[in-house]
Amino acid sequence: MTGAGGTIGSELARQIAALDPARLILVDNGEFLLYAINGELGERFPELTIRPILGDVRDRVRIDGIVHAEDPQIVFHAAGLKHVHMVEANPVEGVLTNVIGTRNVAEAARNHGVGFVVMISTDKAVDPASVMGATKRLAESFCQALDLAEAHRPAAPGIGSGGAIGTRFVTVRFGNVLGSTGSVVPLFTRQLAAGGPLTVTHPEVSRFFMTVREAVELVLEASATVPAEEASPAASAGRGKIFVLDMGEPVRIVDLARQMIRLAGLRPERDIAIRYIGLRPGEKLHEALFHDAEAPVPTKNPALRLASPRTADYAVLARSIDELEEQAGAGHEPRVLALLERLVPEYGRAPGIERGSAAAAV
């Protein structure tokens, strides 16, 4: 599991550990986060074999070596840069982690016969207005294209556990999780403790929300309920789809702010002010879970739907991502952004936005 110390990764680790796997391999590039989740799981599940591994998904050789040495059956890829305004200010870093890191994990899994890869994505990948959203959409596209390509490539005999149909790549897309690091609920909690004001970007801004526990439960269910017919090389039409969690109705952020003030026993706008600070670079008023070209397909679980694939040819996309990696590695930000816009046609950056302004954002 990559990103094992993050909000989603650590909850995935907890729930997977409770299912009594033979081994649990935790990969993260943050020493303290890895230390914390490894210690917690060691105390709660003392009989479980846990391997904490420091490693960065951006390091292709390191990731390939980990997958080769550990020979996992399933890889959950939760590592990523997720804060819109931070990635907007550091687009090259966003590309290197979210796109190149995903490619490194996916290709290492494919090369070593891993049976199943689950990538965690975001609603910000739909019609992205931010670098973060565009990088996640490109990561989605790569995994979709690779899943389709693998339908026709038998795994090498005796390698890993990929079986006779190559590696399966499944993407799960959902919106915000309540209480995640850097999210609005901890921000409002801190602002309430300081006596306000609570800062909201726009009176009409809304987001989808779900608890992290519920989101991870559905990620695991999606991973376990890939239709059996899709496992056949003859049924490649079933591959390349994205699982989309039913997040319910979007919530207006100002309504969430008012509710949190009331729950603290205070009165909105009287005891605690609400201040509108304007949308930051890359932010949208409203998010969506499906692109217009992704016809939703129901599953047996009403909380899970499938987005029909929008993919490029794997070989063509892989060559383009090689070029993107070359430019990102050289730090050529304008060229990186131009390539990102070419590879994600629906990505619409607002004109005139100055980068490097994230330090001023909350």
Protein model, in words:
With 362 residues, this protein is of the alpha/beta class. It has 2 domains: 217 residues, Rossmann fold (3-Layer(aba) Sandwich); 67 residues, UDP-galactose 4-epimerase, domain 1 (Alpha-Beta Complex), CATH 3.90.25.30. The strands form 5 sheets. Strands 3-4-5-10-14-13 form a 6-stranded mixed sheet, with helices on both faces. It has a two-stranded parallel ribbon with strand order 1-2. The chain has a two-stranded parallel ribbon with strand order 6-9. Helix 7 packs across helix 9. The longest helix has 21 residues.
Low-confidence segments: 155-164, 227-235, 350-362
Strands, count: 14
Q: How large, in whole angstroms, is the Cα Rg?
A: 20 Å
CATH fold description of the largest domain: Rossmann fold
The overall average pLDDT, rounded, is 89
What share of residues are in beta strands? 15-25%
Q: Return the structural class.
A: alpha/beta
Roughly how much helix do the residues carry, as a percent range? 25-40%
Provide the number of structural domains: 2
Distance between the termini: 30 Å
Give the name of the CATH superfamily of the largest domain. NAD(P)-binding Rossmann-like Domain
Biggest sheet record: 6 strands, mixed
Described by the principal axes of the CA atoms, the overall outline is: globular
Number of helices: 11
Indicate the CATH class of the largest domain.
Alpha Beta
What strand order characterises the main sheet? Answer: 3-4-5-10-14-13
* CATH architectural name of the largest domain: 3-Layer(aba) Sandwich
H/E series, N to C? Answer: HEHEHEHHEHEEHEEEHEEHEEEHH
